[in-house]
Amino acid sequence: MVESADLNADGFPDLILGRSNELSVLIGNGNGTFQPEKSSANGGFSGLIRMADLDGDGFQDLVTKCSIYMGNGDGTFQNIIERILPIPNPCPFSLEIADFNADDIFDLVIARNFEELFSGGGIFILLGNGDGTFQAEQPIDVFDGSVIFPDSHLISVADLNNDTFPDIISTVSQPVEVLLGNGDGTFQAKQNFDLGSIDSNTSPDQLEVADLNNDGILDLLFVISGYFITEDNPQGFEDFFGITALLGNGDGTFQAEQNRSRNSKLNTEMVLGDLNVDGNIDIAILDISSGEVELFFGNGNGTFSRGPKFSPGHDPISIVISDLNVDGAPDLVTYNFRSAMHFPLFEPPFSHFDSDTVSVFLHK
Question: What is the CA radius of gyration of the chain?
Answer without folding.
Answer: 20
